[in-house]
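The instructor's notes for this session suggest beginning with a concrete chain rather than abstract definitions. Hand out the sequence below and ask the class to guess, before any prediction is shown, which regions might be ordered.
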Amino acid sequence: MKPDVLFFLHLPPAIHGSAVVGLSIKESSKINEAFNGRYINLLLSSEVNDSGNLSVSKMFKVLKISYQMVTMLLQKKPDVCYFALTTTGTAFFKDFIFIVLLKVFRVRLVYHLHNKGFAQKENNSFYRRLFDFAFKDSKVIILSKHLFSDIATYVAPDQVEVCPNGVPRTAGEVSDRKNVIPRILFLSNLIKSKGVVILLEACVLLKDRHCSFQCTIAGGDGDISGTQLNEMIRLLDLAEHVRYVGSKFASEKDLVFRNADLFVFPTYYNAETFGLVNAEAMQYRLPVVSTFEGGIPDIVDDGVTGFLVPQRDVGALADKMELLLKNEKLRKRMGEAGYRKYENEFTQEKFENRLIEILQHECDRLLVD
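After discussion, reveal the predicted structure:
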């Protein structure tokens, strides 16, 4: 008989890394074959730029989710609850309400952390008590070994499993790039801490150095709107080099990856854990320039599959972009190395197999206990 797992996920329409992973879990035939899965959407916002804002409608959604959860628990107690826990802001307190209810029903919890921020609160006795309560007798999935330090105060090493996110195979065969002028791609929601403004400033340096390049910025509105971004491009006199193309999904997203020569993601988002889009770019054999943030050093091998630069270091970012723009052979070598790493570590199949292994082990432990 298949184990029963209650999944608390982040699901679209708001599109960000955790929601993409949540949807892939819900729609995975392999995971649904392994478990009797029931699903609850934890997201209260339908737009990225509405995240973190408190409202009456969100409070009603919390009550609705609580009712839905209690109804499910009364109908049948799951063997395990998979919980995509939010670590910071008001969303954590929302999640904490659900955690209390689950613990009342004595449900075994497996947390999957798609962001970070616990270490920032370790000197706050109030938060420490909340975190100690939440993590007690639980299993915690992190996306990279580099992220353990964020929870080390509250979680023992034997409570932790590492499970990198996976990217479905969508690229197919990628032919040799034929761009006369090399093209840079940035793809993310327009959130300042994802590095989009840093990228524009680096593009100014490239222009001043008389580098030949085109830069495409793709993504939906965040704390910066598309209108504001276009105004920045105009004020920085980058209109001949940089264009904003809006949100791209499915075949349009595939096309912007195929038309690029290198991928740049200069994030300094302090809750960044993985940078799923970097692995997506590697699937398309693109060299990646990103930052030493969160688990990104587990994805991008500095000097092998791309380059890593310090956060907010415009000069270092421009230097690495310039090096790749001027060296087609280096771009190709790094892109091929990135593709091999994607195939070895970051496919959707590897993610699903690892997640099933972790959840199955927790269900088996319940039988032993």
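Then share the key points. Residues 348-368 form the longest helix (21 residues). The domain at 183-345 is CATH 3.40.50.2000 (Rossmann fold).
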